[in-house]
């Protein structure tokens, strides 16, 4: 479903989207930039520039300074990336109802 989008993403964008999926769990899917930078996988990544690239691709949008929100496509793509990662690493499929 999102194979074209997955291929267009850089490796850093993929890591950031997977971590966004893990952080943004509320109904409005809001996450803070500082919370993302504290994640171990994101320590070496230039988070502000990656978030701006994801915003250009319409996967996230800025709510206010330092706070972001995932869009519908961004949520679907991030969950798809997280499912692929979980399957590759643990050989487990995640089924959502």
Question: Can you offer a commentary on this structure?
Answer:
The chain has 97 residues and is an alpha+beta fold. The protein has a single domain (3-90), classed as Arc Repressor Mutant, subunit A (Orthogonal Bundle), CATH 1.10.10.10. The chain is built from five helices and three strands. Strand 2 (60-64) and strand 3 form a beta hairpin. Helix 2 (11-23) packs across helix 5.
| DSSP helical segment count | 5
In quaternary terms, these chains amount to single chain
Give the domain tally: 1
Summed over residues and divided by their number, the pLDDT gives a mean of 91
Strand content: 5-15%
Structural class: alpha+beta
Helix content: 40-55%
**Could you state the CATH homologous superfamily?**
Winged helix-like DNA-binding domain superfamily/Winged helix DNA-binding domain
Can you list the strand order of the major beta sheet?
A: 1-3-2
Rg for CA atoms: 13 Å
Shape: globular
Observed structural traits:
alpha+beta; Arc Repressor Mutant, subunit A; 3-stranded antiparallel beta sheet; 5 helices; 3 strands; 55% helix; globular
């Amino acid at each position: 479903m999102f194979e074209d989008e997955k291929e267009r993403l850089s490796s850093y964008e993929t890591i950031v989207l997977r971590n966004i999926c893990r952080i943004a769990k509320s109904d409005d899917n809001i996450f803070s930039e500082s919370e993302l930078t504290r994640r171990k996988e994101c320590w070496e990544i230039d988070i502000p520039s990656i978030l701006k690239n994801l915003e250009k691709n319409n996967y996230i949008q800025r709510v206010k300074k330092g706070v972001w929100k995932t869009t519908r496509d961004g949520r679907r793509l991030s969950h798809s990336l997280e499912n692929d990662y979980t399957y590759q690493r643990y050989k487990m499929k995640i089924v959502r109802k």
